[in-house]
Amino acid sequence: MEIKSFGVIGAGQMGNGIAQVAASSGLQVIMNDINTEFVERGLQTIDKILARGVDKGKISADEKEAILGRIKPSTDIKDLAGADFVVEAATENEPVKFQIFKTLDEMCSAQAILATNTSSIPIGRIANQTNRPDKVIGMHFMNPVPVMKLVEVIRGIATSQETFEITWQLSEKFGKTPAEANDYPGFIANRILMPMINEAVYCLYHQVGSREAIDTVMKLGMNHPMGPLALADLIGLDTCLAIMETLYDGFKDSKYRPCPLLRKYVEAGWLGRKTGRGFFEYN
Ligand code: CAA
Question: How many CB atoms lie within 10 A of CB 179?
Protein backbone atom coordinates (compact mmCIF):
# COMPACT_ATOMS: atom_id res chain seq x y z
CA MET A 1 0.00 0.00 0.00
CA GLU A 2 1.48 3.35 -1.04
CA ILE A 3 0.83 6.23 1.33
CA LYS A 4 -0.03 9.33 -0.69
CA SER A 5 -2.10 11.42 1.68
CA PHE A 6 -1.03 11.80 5.28
CA GLY A 7 -2.98 13.41 8.09
CA VAL A 8 -1.86 14.69 11.50
CA ILE A 9 -4.25 15.48 14.30
CA GLY A 10 -2.76 18.09 16.59
CA ALA A 11 -0.63 21.06 15.51
CA GLY A 12 1.20 21.39 18.83
CA GLN A 13 4.79 20.58 19.77
CA MET A 14 4.65 17.01 18.42
CA GLY A 15 2.00 17.42 15.69
CA ASN A 16 3.73 20.25 13.84
CA GLY A 17 7.05 18.38 13.99
CA ILE A 18 5.41 15.28 12.51
CA ALA A 19 3.75 17.38 9.79
CA GLN A 20 7.14 18.94 8.98
CA VAL A 21 9.03 15.65 8.61
CA ALA A 22 6.17 14.12 6.57
CA ALA A 23 6.02 17.10 4.19
CA SER A 24 9.84 17.13 3.96
CA SER A 25 9.68 13.50 2.80
CA GLY A 26 7.43 14.56 -0.09
CA LEU A 27 4.01 13.58 1.24
CA GLN A 28 0.91 15.74 1.00
CA VAL A 29 -0.02 16.52 4.60
CA ILE A 30 -3.19 17.72 6.26
CA MET A 31 -2.45 19.24 9.68
CA ASN A 32 -5.60 19.43 11.78
CA ASP A 33 -6.34 21.01 15.14
CA ILE A 34 -9.44 22.28 16.91
CA ASN A 35 -9.03 25.95 16.03
CA THR A 36 -7.31 28.27 13.58
CA GLU A 37 -5.05 29.76 16.24
CA PHE A 38 -3.48 26.38 17.08
CA VAL A 39 -3.01 25.48 13.40
CA GLU A 40 -1.51 28.90 12.60
CA ARG A 41 0.89 28.62 15.53
CA GLY A 42 1.94 25.16 14.31
CA LEU A 43 2.57 26.49 10.79
CA GLN A 44 4.60 29.40 12.18
CA THR A 45 6.79 26.98 14.13
CA ILE A 46 7.42 24.91 11.00
CA ASP A 47 8.17 28.09 9.03
CA LYS A 48 10.64 29.23 11.68
CA ILE A 49 12.47 25.90 11.83
CA LEU A 50 12.66 25.58 8.04
CA ALA A 51 13.93 29.20 7.83
CA ARG A 52 16.74 28.22 10.21
CA GLY A 53 17.53 25.34 7.82
CA VAL A 54 17.72 27.82 4.90
CA ASP A 55 20.01 30.15 6.89
CA LYS A 56 22.32 27.23 7.63
CA GLY A 57 22.32 26.16 3.97
CA LYS A 58 20.68 22.80 4.74
CA ILE A 59 17.73 23.42 2.39
CA SER A 60 17.07 26.01 -0.31
CA ALA A 61 14.43 28.74 -0.03
CA ASP A 62 12.51 26.97 -2.83
CA GLU A 63 12.56 23.68 -0.91
CA LYS A 64 11.25 25.46 2.17
CA GLU A 65 8.33 26.88 0.18
CA ALA A 66 7.65 23.49 -1.41
CA ILE A 67 7.55 21.79 2.02
CA LEU A 68 5.21 24.44 3.42
CA GLY A 69 3.08 24.17 0.27
CA ARG A 70 2.53 20.47 0.96
CA ILE A 71 0.98 21.16 4.38
CA LYS A 72 -2.72 21.91 4.23
CA PRO A 73 -4.09 23.47 7.42
CA SER A 74 -7.42 22.16 8.69
CA THR A 75 -9.79 22.74 11.57
CA ASP A 76 -12.40 20.21 10.42
CA ILE A 77 -11.55 16.58 11.16
CA LYS A 78 -13.63 15.58 8.10
CA ASP A 79 -10.76 16.94 5.94
CA LEU A 80 -8.89 13.76 6.90
CA ALA A 81 -11.53 11.45 5.39
CA GLY A 82 -9.36 10.78 2.30
CA ALA A 83 -6.07 10.21 4.14
CA ASP A 84 -4.30 6.85 3.76
CA PHE A 85 -2.46 7.22 7.05
CA VAL A 86 -3.31 9.41 10.04
CA VAL A 87 -1.14 10.05 13.09
CA GLU A 88 -2.98 11.37 16.10
CA ALA A 89 -0.84 13.70 18.22
CA ALA A 90 -3.57 15.35 20.26
CA THR A 91 -3.40 16.04 23.96
CA GLU A 92 -2.47 13.05 26.15
CA ASN A 93 -6.00 12.52 27.43
CA GLU A 94 -7.86 9.24 27.02
CA PRO A 95 -11.40 10.53 26.35
CA VAL A 96 -10.06 13.02 23.79
CA LYS A 97 -8.04 10.35 21.98
CA PHE A 98 -10.91 7.83 22.14
CA GLN A 99 -13.30 10.30 20.51
CA ILE A 100 -10.80 11.10 17.76
CA PHE A 101 -10.31 7.41 16.95
CA LYS A 102 -14.07 6.75 16.91
CA THR A 103 -14.53 9.64 14.48
CA LEU A 104 -11.58 8.64 12.27
CA ASP A 105 -12.83 5.05 12.17
CA GLU A 106 -16.26 6.16 10.95
CA MET A 107 -14.88 8.60 8.41
CA CYS A 108 -11.74 7.13 6.87
CA SER A 109 -11.58 4.43 4.20
CA ALA A 110 -11.43 0.83 5.42
CA GLN A 111 -7.77 0.59 4.29
CA ALA A 112 -6.57 3.67 6.16
CA ILE A 113 -4.08 3.14 9.00
CA LEU A 114 -4.72 5.05 12.21
CA ALA A 115 -1.60 5.64 14.29
CA THR A 116 -1.22 7.31 17.65
CA ASN A 117 1.73 9.25 18.99
CA THR A 118 0.64 8.47 22.54
CA SER A 119 3.50 8.29 25.00
CA SER A 120 1.69 6.08 27.47
CA ILE A 121 -1.92 5.12 26.70
CA PRO A 122 -2.18 1.41 25.76
CA ILE A 123 -2.50 0.92 21.99
CA GLY A 124 -4.99 -1.91 22.58
CA ARG A 125 -7.31 0.39 24.50
CA ILE A 126 -7.25 2.97 21.69
CA ALA A 127 -7.67 0.27 19.01
CA ASN A 128 -10.70 -1.05 20.86
CA GLN A 129 -12.51 2.23 20.11
CA THR A 130 -12.47 1.30 16.42
CA ASN A 131 -13.72 -1.46 14.15
CA ARG A 132 -10.23 -1.86 12.68
CA PRO A 133 -7.94 -2.80 15.57
CA ASP A 134 -5.60 -4.51 13.06
CA LYS A 135 -4.98 -1.10 11.47
CA VAL A 136 -4.24 0.78 14.70
CA ILE A 137 -0.63 1.18 15.82
CA GLY A 138 1.64 3.30 17.99
CA MET A 139 3.99 5.67 16.14
CA HIS A 140 5.85 7.43 18.91
CA PHE A 141 8.02 10.35 17.84
CA MET A 142 10.50 12.09 20.14
CA ASN A 143 10.68 15.78 20.89
CA PRO A 144 11.98 17.83 19.05
CA VAL A 145 10.64 15.72 16.18
CA PRO A 146 12.71 17.21 13.32
CA VAL A 147 15.95 16.50 15.24
CA MET A 148 15.40 13.20 17.03
CA LYS A 149 16.16 10.12 14.95
CA LEU A 150 13.92 7.62 16.74
CA VAL A 151 10.39 6.47 16.06
CA GLU A 152 9.16 3.86 18.52
CA VAL A 153 6.74 1.64 16.58
CA ILE A 154 4.37 -0.09 18.98
CA ARG A 155 2.34 -3.14 18.10
CA GLY A 156 -1.01 -3.46 19.80
CA ILE A 157 -2.17 -7.01 20.48
CA ALA A 158 -4.34 -6.90 17.32
CA THR A 159 -2.04 -4.85 15.05
CA SER A 160 -1.48 -6.70 11.76
CA GLN A 161 1.95 -7.43 10.31
CA GLU A 162 1.01 -5.36 7.23
CA THR A 163 0.16 -2.31 9.38
CA PHE A 164 3.43 -2.76 11.25
CA GLU A 165 5.49 -2.96 8.04
CA ILE A 166 3.83 0.09 6.46
CA THR A 167 4.45 2.13 9.62
CA TRP A 168 8.05 0.96 9.79
CA GLN A 169 8.66 1.92 6.14
CA LEU A 170 6.97 5.28 6.63
CA SER A 171 9.25 6.03 9.60
CA GLU A 172 12.24 5.31 7.36
CA LYS A 173 10.80 7.51 4.62
CA PHE A 174 10.71 10.31 7.19
CA GLY A 175 14.46 9.83 7.71
CA LYS A 176 13.97 8.19 11.11
CA THR A 177 15.21 4.94 12.60
CA PRO A 178 12.32 2.85 13.90
CA ALA A 179 12.55 0.55 16.91
CA GLU A 180 9.91 -2.06 17.70
CA ALA A 181 8.12 -2.20 21.04
CA ASN A 182 5.22 -4.15 22.45
CA ASP A 183 2.20 -2.68 24.16
CA TYR A 184 3.12 -2.50 27.86
CA PRO A 185 2.95 0.64 30.02
CA GLY A 186 5.44 3.28 28.84
CA PHE A 187 6.56 0.99 25.98
CA ILE A 188 10.41 1.15 25.90
CA ALA A 189 11.27 4.85 25.75
CA ASN A 190 9.25 6.10 28.69
CA ARG A 191 9.65 2.92 30.75
CA ILE A 192 13.33 3.82 30.95
CA LEU A 193 13.37 7.61 30.58
CA MET A 194 10.63 8.63 33.01
CA PRO A 195 11.89 6.75 36.10
CA MET A 196 15.24 8.47 35.48
CA ILE A 197 13.59 11.90 35.32
CA ASN A 198 11.44 11.05 38.37
CA GLU A 199 14.56 10.03 40.28
CA ALA A 200 16.21 13.35 39.37
CA VAL A 201 13.16 15.11 40.85
CA TYR A 202 13.55 12.96 44.00
CA CYS A 203 17.18 14.13 44.21
CA LEU A 204 15.93 17.72 44.20
CA TYR A 205 13.12 16.86 46.67
CA HIS A 206 15.57 15.20 49.08
CA GLN A 207 18.04 18.05 48.58
CA VAL A 208 20.74 15.73 47.40
CA GLY A 209 21.73 18.52 45.02
CA SER A 210 20.56 21.76 43.42
CA ARG A 211 18.77 21.72 40.06
CA GLU A 212 22.01 22.89 38.43
CA ALA A 213 24.11 20.19 40.14
CA ILE A 214 21.69 17.41 39.21
CA ASP A 215 21.64 18.43 35.55
CA THR A 216 25.40 19.00 35.41
CA VAL A 217 26.08 15.51 36.79
CA MET A 218 23.99 13.87 34.09
CA LYS A 219 25.21 16.14 31.28
CA LEU A 220 28.92 15.97 31.97
CA GLY A 221 29.06 12.69 33.86
CA MET A 222 26.88 10.64 31.55
CA ASN A 223 27.16 12.65 28.33
CA HIS A 224 23.43 13.31 28.11
CA PRO A 225 22.73 16.24 25.76
CA MET A 226 20.67 17.91 28.47
CA GLY A 227 20.07 17.32 32.17
CA PRO A 228 16.97 15.38 33.29
CA LEU A 229 15.32 18.42 34.88
CA ALA A 230 15.80 20.56 31.76
CA LEU A 231 14.53 17.62 29.70
CA ALA A 232 11.44 17.35 31.93
CA ASP A 233 10.82 21.05 31.25
CA LEU A 234 11.11 20.39 27.51
CA ILE A 235 8.71 17.43 27.61
CA GLY A 236 6.24 19.13 29.98
CA LEU A 237 5.94 18.27 33.67
CA ASP A 238 2.25 17.39 33.25
CA THR A 239 3.22 14.84 30.60
CA CYS A 240 5.98 13.45 32.84
CA LEU A 241 3.52 13.09 35.73
CA ALA A 242 0.89 11.46 33.51
CA ILE A 243 3.44 8.92 32.26
CA MET A 244 4.61 8.11 35.81
CA GLU A 245 0.95 7.59 36.80
CA THR A 246 0.52 5.22 33.85
CA LEU A 247 3.58 3.20 34.90
CA TYR A 248 2.43 3.14 38.51
CA ASP A 249 -1.14 2.15 37.65
CA GLY A 250 -0.04 -0.35 35.02
CA PHE A 251 2.52 -2.26 37.08
CA LYS A 252 1.22 -1.57 40.59
CA ASP A 253 4.86 -1.39 41.58
CA SER A 254 5.93 1.29 44.06
CA LYS A 255 9.17 1.90 42.19
CA TYR A 256 7.12 3.96 39.72
CA ARG A 257 5.50 6.28 42.29
CA PRO A 258 5.68 9.89 41.06
CA CYS A 259 7.76 12.22 43.23
CA PRO A 260 5.51 14.52 45.32
CA LEU A 261 7.58 17.50 44.16
CA LEU A 262 6.72 16.73 40.52
CA ARG A 263 3.03 16.71 41.42
CA LYS A 264 3.40 19.96 43.37
CA TYR A 265 4.93 21.74 40.37
CA VAL A 266 2.18 20.48 38.07
CA GLU A 267 -0.52 21.59 40.53
CA ALA A 268 1.08 25.06 40.62
CA GLY A 269 0.92 25.25 36.82
CA TRP A 270 4.72 25.09 36.54
CA LEU A 271 4.67 22.83 33.54
CA GLY A 272 8.05 23.63 31.99
CA ARG A 273 8.98 25.61 28.90
CA LYS A 274 5.41 25.87 27.66
CA THR A 275 4.34 27.91 30.72
CA GLY A 276 7.64 29.76 31.16
CA ARG A 277 8.50 27.95 34.37
CA GLY A 278 9.28 24.41 35.40
CA PHE A 279 12.42 23.35 37.20
CA PHE A 280 14.04 26.31 35.39
CA GLU A 281 12.66 29.65 34.25
CA TYR A 282 12.19 30.60 30.58
CA ASN A 283 11.40 33.87 28.80
N1 CAA B 1 12.87 22.03 16.79
C2 CAA B 1 13.64 21.82 15.69
N3 CAA B 1 14.98 21.83 15.71
C4 CAA B 1 15.57 22.08 16.88
C5 CAA B 1 14.85 22.29 18.07
C6 CAA B 1 13.44 22.29 17.98
N7 CAA B 1 12.65 22.48 19.04
N8 CAA B 1 15.72 22.50 19.08
C9 CAA B 1 16.95 22.40 18.55
N10 CAA B 1 16.86 22.14 17.22
C11 CAA B 1 17.97 21.92 16.29
C12 CAA B 1 18.86 23.15 16.15
O13 CAA B 1 18.37 24.01 15.15
C14 CAA B 1 20.20 22.54 15.77
O15 CAA B 1 20.17 22.24 14.40
P16 CAA B 1 21.53 22.16 13.50
O17 CAA B 1 22.27 20.93 13.94
O18 CAA B 1 21.03 22.06 12.13
O19 CAA B 1 22.29 23.39 13.79
C20 CAA B 1 20.21 21.21 16.54
O21 CAA B 1 18.84 20.91 16.84
C22 CAA B 1 21.00 21.31 17.83
O23 CAA B 1 20.43 22.37 18.60
P24 CAA B 1 21.24 23.36 19.53
O25 CAA B 1 22.64 23.48 19.01
O26 CAA B 1 20.45 24.60 19.72
O27 CAA B 1 21.21 22.70 20.96
P28 CAA B 1 21.68 21.27 21.40
O29 CAA B 1 22.85 20.78 20.65
O30 CAA B 1 21.72 21.36 22.87
O31 CAA B 1 20.44 20.33 20.99
C32 CAA B 1 18.49 19.20 21.62
C33 CAA B 1 19.16 20.55 21.47
C34 CAA B 1 18.37 18.53 20.24
C35 CAA B 1 17.11 19.45 22.18
C36 CAA B 1 19.38 18.32 22.55
O37 CAA B 1 19.61 19.00 23.76
C38 CAA B 1 18.78 16.98 22.86
O39 CAA B 1 18.89 16.04 22.08
N40 CAA B 1 18.11 16.85 24.04
C41 CAA B 1 17.45 15.64 24.48
C42 CAA B 1 16.11 15.55 23.82
C43 CAA B 1 15.38 14.31 24.21
O44 CAA B 1 15.81 13.50 25.02
N45 CAA B 1 14.19 14.14 23.62
C46 CAA B 1 13.32 13.05 23.95
C47 CAA B 1 12.30 13.50 24.91
S48 CAA B 1 11.22 12.20 25.32
C49 CAA B 1 10.02 12.27 24.22
O50 CAA B 1 9.94 13.13 23.39
C51 CAA B 1 9.03 11.18 24.27
C52 CAA B 1 8.00 11.22 25.31
O53 CAA B 1 7.04 10.51 25.17
C54 CAA B 1 8.07 12.04 26.50
Answer: 16
* Whole-structure pTM value: 0.95
Which amino acid is present at 77? I
What is the rounded distance in angstroms from the CA atom of residue 150 to the CA atom of residue 4? 22
139-183 pLDDT, tens digit per residue, is 999 999 999 999 999 999 999 999 999 999 999 999 999 999 999
Which numbered atom of ligand 1 lies nearest the CA of 45? Answer: 1
Q: How high is the pLDDT of residue 283?
A: 87
The CATH topology of domain 5-181 is Rossmann fold (3.40.50)
Evaluate the CA torsion angle 271, 243, 257, 231 in order and state its sign. Answer: negative
- How remote is the CA of residue 103 from the centroid of ligand 1, in Å? 33
The residues assigned a catalytic role are: 119, 140, 152, 190
Report the DSSP beta bridge partners of residue 29. Answer: 6, 71
Contacts for 232-236: CB closer than 8 Å, 24+ residues apart: 232/197, 232/200, 232/201, 232/262, 232/272, 232/278, 232/279, 233/272, 233/273, 233/278, 233/279, 233/280, 233/282, 234/143, 234/272, 234/273, 235/143, 235/197, 235/272, 236/13, 236/271, 236/272, 236/273, 236/274
- Output the CA 144–ligand 1 centroid distance in Å: 5
In this structure, which amino acid lies at residue 48? K
What's the fold here for domain 189-275? N-(1-d-carboxylethyl)-l-norvaline Dehydrogenase; domain 2 (1.10.1040)
Beta bridge partners of 181: 154
Sign of CA dihedral 233, 239, 241, 247: negative
Phi then psi dihedrals of residue 279, to 5 deg: -75, -25
